[in-house]
Amino acid sequence: EDAAFNAIDREAPQEADVPPTAKHKRVKVIPRGQQQLQLAQDKVIIHKQAALGKDDDKNVLDAPVAVNGVDDNAGEMGKPVVLPKEMAPDMKKAVDEGWTNNAFNQYVSDLISVHRSLPDPRDAWCKDSARYLSNLPKTDVIICFHNEAWSVLLRTVHSVLDRSPSELIGEIILVDDYSDMTHLKKKLEDYFADYPMVKIVRGPQREGLIRARLLGAKYAKSPVITYLDSHCECAEGWLEPLLDRIARNSTTVVCPVIDVIDDATLEFHYRDSSGVNVGGFDWNLQFSWHSVPEREKKRHNSTSEPVYSPTMAGGLFSIDREFFERLGTYDSGFDIWGGENLELSFKTWMCGGTLEIVPCSHVGHIFRKRSPYKWRTGVNVLKKNSVRLAEVWMDDYSKYYYQRIGMDKGDFGDVSDRKKLREDLQCKSFQWYLDTIYPELFIPGNAVANGEIRNLGYGGRTCLDSPSGKRNLKKAVGLYPCHKQGGNQIRNINTNMCLDAMLKNEDESPVGVYECHGQGGHQYWMLSKAGEIRRDQACLDYAGKDVILFGCHGSRGNQFWQYRENTKLLHHGSSGKCLAINESRDKLIMEECDASHLRQHWVLENYDSS
Ligand code: UD2
Ligand code: MN
């Protein structure tokens, strides 16, 4: 094992990567009729058929049936394959191993044909071939992988071969980023020996996905380059709508709609054009999805038309090869994973191009909740990439990112080449980009207060107690009355409690309180001039039940808070109540305003009353 690499839990909450509307109900179904599924010698429990899609939810089903038999149609039409809850030990072991190695259900993927069919996710609008130029440019398709599962990688490649007009594909370039899984060695060459369109390139060392993509680009000869992740499935008609945009204007960079392939069942969830999202980011420089803004909707007659997107997710896009080169491709100083999507997005817009999401083009992707492969040890690669990005492209606005990382940029190497590139290209300012392309983004500098929101009630009465004896503050289990006998009580709390987003900075997650730790993170809040208490795009929201985080809507009401510095009360708009904490200091409550209760007193960091 190479000591320079290690398994990592990505810092980014991976759930947030999944486009939001994809979280709809998971329908447990077996494909086509009551066909039967055999898994080794096991008795398998499957569910009767129900079709995919909202209209057919009523078919979803009753009692599971136990069967033995073979199902050659597992996963066809993008339907899910559901494994039984009870499994023989051998099978369970294989299933678990698949999850460990890939962070998705490889066992289920292996049951599904690498040529499986998918539903046609396109609107009728898209199927009118007169919408596309007849003389479209060819593209090379570059797919980089590091230790990808065999069936998943092959299905990605076959979905391109099976569902693209062959005259539009130059080569499919597979870039092996130094995998060590044996199936990715000679067996891969053997498998594709009869496919002249498929080329296999192998890097001499682990490069990370950014330099692997650059390596692939060196072999590209077609006028357009299309990148895909190695766990994708292209749907019917995915390619023409992308190439059409580039044929009309070579500075247009285009992304398909990314449909979600379920990590457990491999179900292909598609969304129609009314559910299309565009890309944004927050000041941690994390990518995020947003519904199409009103100003953008107004530019269109149909929801099937391509929409402007401030950023791209990163993995799936087409770009004119010469334009990509003119933009200086990627910063090759970016390592392993992350940030390159924002780099390409910013410079596309700032240096004369356009970035679009094309609702007629659909490609599925397996979104994973953790990174299955090893990352470089001894360096925070994501932070290093992000600092390079901020240094070169974000002008003064870089400070908002630096605040999030405690102003500690670390060693980010030399970016003078990249700065020169920006100068030579005479790109526009980041201010222009924010004003023109992403006016929805909240600018922390416009906040009235930023930092922690500290409660003054019930201070110093409890101790942090870790009954399990684990002295790990982060995993500390509770707050108990202090007994002053040491033991499992690891710290006397004479600090106060702070408003804390708890585990996730996600829509609709309940907000709580936690001992103030002064390190930002989940305790970092901004009070906007409009009276919102924000964490980037999520706002503190009270609708009569819990105090939660909800996507900021900008129309006051449940998200309107007024702070009175003299009384220290936080008044809530629509309810007229005040924010407080309960006596056991583990919950936020809303109650009638009364300035004589310390539990309703809050101190906002960096509050500027002017
Ligand atoms: C998203 C993007 C991904 C990339 C990343 C940020 C989508 C759907 N995915 O994360 O393409 O832009 O954000 O950097 O937009 N790989 C290598 N070498 C490595 C690591 C990864 O070749 O060292 C390959 C990997 O096998 C995969 C691709 O790069 O095919 C992207 O990696 P990922 O799937 O872990 O990234 P993802 O989808 O979480
Ligand atoms: Mn991926």
TrEMBL record:
Secretion signal, residue range per the UniProt entry: none
SMART domains tied to this protein: RICIN (SM00458)
Main location (coarse class): Golgi
Signal recorded as keyword: no
Enzyme class: transferase
GO molecular function, one term: metal ion binding
Keywords noted in UniProt: Disulfide bond, Glycosyltransferase, Golgi apparatus, Lectin, Manganese, Membrane, Metal-binding, Signal-anchor, Transferase, Transmembrane, Transmembrane helix
GO CC field: Golgi cisterna; Golgi membrane
Pathway(s) where this gene product acts: Protein modification; protein glycosylation
Similarity annotation: Belongs to the glycosyltransferase 2 family. GalNAc-T subfamily.
Protein name (database record): Polypeptide N-acetylgalactosaminyltransferase
Organism this protein belongs to: Drosophila grimshawi
Gene: Dgri\GH22705
